[in-house]
Every structure is written in C-alpha cells, then in structure tokens.
Amino acid sequence: MFGKKKNKPTIDQEQLALIKNAEKRIKQKKRLYIHFVIFLIGAVFLILANTLLGIGDTFKIAGLEWFVFAIGFWLFLFIYHFISVFVTHKFMGKAWEDEQREALVAKQQQRIEALKQEYLKEEHNIAKSQAYSETLNVRTPSEKKTSELTIIVAAGENNAIGKDNDLIWHLSNDLKRFKKLTSGHHIIMGRKTFESFPKPLPNRTHIVITRQANYQAPEGVIIVNSLEEAITISRNDTQPFIIGGGEIYKQSIHLADKIELTRVHATFESADTFFPNIDDSIWKEISRTTHDADDKHAHAFSFITYLKR
Ligand SMILES: NC(=O)c1ccc[n+]([C@@H]2O[C@H](COP(=O)([O-])OP(=O)(O)OC[C@H]3O[C@@H](n4cnc5c(N)ncnc54)[C@H](OP(=O)(O)O)[C@@H]3O)[C@@H](O)[C@H]2O)c1
Half-sphere exposure of 244 toward its Cβ, with a 13 Å CA cutoff? Predict the structure, then answer.
C-alpha cells in the first residue's frame, strides 16, 4: 500500500516520430532495391524477347532495336526513383523535413519569447533600483545629480511648525518667499497639510501622500501612497520641494539635499507639530538673512539655507 511507486515507462513523442520516419526510410530504400532488381530482370527479359523469341525483330527506331529504347526509358524511370529517394527527399522525406523545420522555428520562437520576458523583467528591476537609488540619493560618483530635493519650512525657536492643522503665525514675507521658491516646481506634502489649504496653490504640481487607498482630490493633484513614490514621480524636476507637515518632514529629512528654513525668533509652547532638529554635523549653513519684526510681521525671522555636508 505504501510501497514505492513504480515508474511507468514513457516514450518521448519526438523519439516516436524518429522511429516512424526511420521505418519509412527503410521501406523507401527497400522499394528502390526491388525496383532495381525488377529493372535488371526486365531488361534481360526484353533483350531475350527480342533476340531469342524474335518479338518485334522487324521494329527498329533509328536503326536500333526497340528494346534499347524500352530499357533506356526504364533506366530513366529508375534514375528518377533513385534521385527522389537519395537526393530530393534526402533524409526522411520532405514532409519530415518541413515538420522538423517548423518544430525548430517554434522552439526558437519560444526561446526568443522567454528571453524577451527575462529582458523586460531585468529592465523593470534596473529601472526600479535606479529609481530607488535616486530616491535614497545613492549615486555612483560618475552619476551626475540632476534633482535637488529641498525641504522648505518655517519653524519657531523650539521647532514648532503648527497647531490644530494650521500655521501659528502669519509672516507675509515668508509666504512671498515660499511662493517665489516653489513656483513651477513639484511640492510634496502629507495629506493633513494638503487639507489645511483652502484650495491647491497655483502654478505648482501637488503630490499628496496618504495611506488611504481611494483618497479623492481635485484634478491635477497627484495622490501617492508613500514618500518614495512621491520623490520618484518628481525626480525630473530640478528642485522638488517637501513642504510638510511634521510627519513628512521627519521621514524625509535624511533624504533631502537642502533645507530652506525660515527660523521664527519666538517660542511657541502651544504648538502640536514640530520640525526635527537640524544636526550641524549633517547640515551646513550656507546663507542667512535676518528680518526684524515690524507692523506686518509680529516676529523677527531669518531665512537660512542649509546644504547637506
Ligand atoms: N510651518 C511650516 O512650514 C509648515 C509646513 C507644512 C505644514 N505645517 C503644519 O503641519 C501640520 C500638519 O502636519 P502633520 O504632521 O500633522 O501632517 P502631515 O505630515 O501634513 O500629513 C500626515 C499624513 O500624511 C500621510 N502620511 C504620512 N506618512 C506617510 C507614509 N509614509 N505613507 C503614506 N502616507 C503617509 C498620512 O495621511 P493619511 O492619514 O491620509 O493616511 C498622515 O496622516 C499642520 O499644523 C500644518 O499647518 C507647517
């Protein structure tokens, strides 16, 4: 009951076809051999019929006995038979050759198709890994960087950036700077920041990150399900911007190349959202301009640009 399963002998279909064709070939040769023997006997019989029995001994063509032409014609038929066995249908016959050619072509086509699929798979993997490398800023020294991923943020001295899904201050020069820097570029943001806008900002491509599968947004707004996807989509932009909020800043600060910070010189204790610490060992300040408070600006602030070291 639990004994070893016996292997049933199986015959390969190709082998079977080869055997059949070999049998056919033997028959063809046999028939040619029989034809040859009959031809020899027939030729002798024709000669004897004419010379010994005197059949048609008065019938001559161009001075030659009729059996010469009869044997010549038969020889022609035999040669034709010989050629058709050994020359025209040289191997297993034409049908067999056609069949083999078709089988070979079908096999090659299958192989080409498999190679194509492999190539497409490989191409897809290369593209994916390139996109991933670019996302993580992993580039070989020879690869030139074409996109400068920039974080733009306004943060208090205690890194406060918002409260109740809104900004805590209104600084008109900061908004003007934001508009000037980001116009014409991709702006990447978390779903909550996007919802804090009354409507999409003009002249910018919005990329909104959400974990929701069917998040609905106005036409033209790109919805993605991960930060990596957002960065990949914007990688043809020379300077895509990450514009917040707190969650997205936290996840992207190690991926960014540049930070455009508006440091608001005040501490906002009531804030509920914060920017991560800017580590001096990673970020180098390359420019700073400071503005005092005035009637349009309740707080003093500085525009500071950092580049990744
Ligand atoms: N001062 C500034 O410069 C500045 C700039 C921007 C924003 N803000 C302030 O920041 C606050 C909003 O920030 P926030 O941290 O609450 O929210 P947020 O970062 O704007 O958005 C968070 C949402 O993004 C989605 N998300 C985050 N990480 C994700 C990931 N890895 N994959 C997929 N989706 C992801 C989730 O959306 P779902 O829940 O839909 O899945 C999450 O709820 C507001 O107060 C705003 O005013 C300040």
Answer: 26
Q: Residue 288 Cα, ligand 1 centroid: separation in angstroms?
A: 27
7 Cα to the center of ligand 1, angstroms: 65
For ligand 1, atom 40: residue with the closest CA: 210
Q: Going by CA atoms, what residue is nearest to atom 5 of ligand 1?
A: 244
Q: Quote the CA–CA distance of 167 and 305 in Å, as a whole number.
A: 21
* Predicted structure pTM score: 0.62
What are the sequence ranges of the domains in the chain? 13-92, 150-308
- Identity (one letter) of the amino acid at 133? S
Q: What φ, ψ does residue 238 adopt, rounded to 5°?
A: -65, -30
- For the segment 156-183, what is each residue's pLDDT rounded down to a tens digit? 999 999 999 999 999 999 999 999 999 9
Domain 150-308, CATH: 3.40.430.10
pLDDT (tens digit per residue) in 194-204: 999 999 999 99
